[in-house]
Design a protein that fits this description.
alpha/beta, Rossmann fold, two-stranded parallel sheet, globular, binds 1,4-dihydronicotinamide adenine dinucleotide, binds D-galactaro-1,5-lactone
Length: 270
């Protein structure tokens, strides 16, 4: 199965750049979008690609970006903890604009890059699943929680299907102890994306995005229908991680799933 045209937002970001060459097997044509300044630096379009500058906060521009696409991988937005006003524009208004455009243009499936920071205030000795109460660890996590609610609403009301992937940590290597639990390889992410895009009748499914790590905090029982079977493991990084100086035992990096995000802020002095 493949789509005729697939949209990737956040195409110039850390994950988007690595994903880009892998998308040729997902669709005949791939539309790559990011802020114009970021997209300019991302290199010229291949024959099967279109490159587009678009601010997610601009509703009209987002509508034009989505027109003609069958499916969307939505990675665009602020990806770390920031003051509320920044998160509001890129993530909260941005996700509304994406879903409204998806509805208007008959998009079949959205993959929403949610985050483990939707449940960042759980302790690292707790094991949770997609039905547990969300405990966002900042404005960033709150925006991803809102995005998941937006996805559920657009499915219930308009039938637009979504897989919300609560990504752990997609980086080339796990570089600290926390990431030994949260790490996800690009190969495993590609597999999860493929299953999320092509499994029929997903409704709105929430899945944690992690590799087959030896110690994890997340239980994907409610996403079993996706058939995601990760192949990589963070164990290959363990020796290097354990040779580093370790954080104090009461440091949030060592105690809470969201790590340092749980201790960011406050921002916005009046
Ligand atoms: P990134 O920050 O490298 O990429 C995000 C991209 O979104 C950037 O290229 C940025 O220019 C773009 N963007 C920001 N504001 C925008 C706006 N107003 N309009 C259009 N584009 C805008 O983040 P990364 O690491 O590539 O993550 C991709 C997605 O996955 C993000 O949504 C992030 O929240 C999510 N995620 C990533 C994780 C990871 O481990 N890398 C973990 C959990 C979630
Ligand atoms: C995220 O949601 C961020 O986008 C990413 O930069 C990492 O901080 C990741 O979570 C993580 O928790 O490691």
């Amino acid at each position: 199965a493949r789509f005729s045209r697939l949209l990737l937002t956040g195409a110039a970001g850390g994950v988007g750049k690595q994903l880009r060459p892998r998308l040729a097997s997902f669709a005949d044509s791939v539309r790559l979008a990011d802020l114009a300044s970021a997209m300019e630096a991302a290199g010229p379009a291949a024959p099967h690609e279109q490159v587009l500058g678009c601010d997610l906060a601009d509703r009209v521009a987002v509508d034009a970006m989505v027109a003609g696409c069958e499916a969307i991988i939505h990675l665009g937005g602020v990806s770390v903890e920031r003051p509320f006003e920044e998160i509001l524009e890129a993530n909260i208004k941005g996700v509304f604009h994406i879903y409204e455009a998806a509805r208007r243009h008959g998009v079949k499936r959205v993959i929403f890059a949610s985050s483990n920071h939707v449940t960042g205030f759980y302790r690292q000795d707790q094991r949770i699943n997609a039905h547990d109460l969300r405990r966002p660890d900042g404005y960033y996590g709150l925006s991803k929680s809102y995005g998941e609610d937006m996805a559920q609403f657009y499915f219930d009301r308009y039938g637009v299907e979504t897989v919300s992937i609560r990504i752990g940590s997609i980086f080339p290597e796990a570089t600290n102890r926390r990431m030994l639990a949260s790490w996800m390889s690009m190969d495993d992410f590609e597999q999860l994306l493929r299953r999320s895009l092509f499994t029929p009748d997903v409704g709105h499914t929430v899945v944690y995005g992690m590799s087959a790590n030896a110690h994890t905090w997340w239980d994907n029982r409610y996403a079993a229908h996706l058939g995601y079977a990760p192949k990589d493991s963070s164990e290959i990084f363990r020796a290097k991680v354990e040779a580093q100086p370790q954080p104090a035992p009461d440091d949030p990096v060592a105690t809470l799933q969201g790590g340092a995000f749980t201790a960011a802020g406050p921002f916005d002095p009046l």
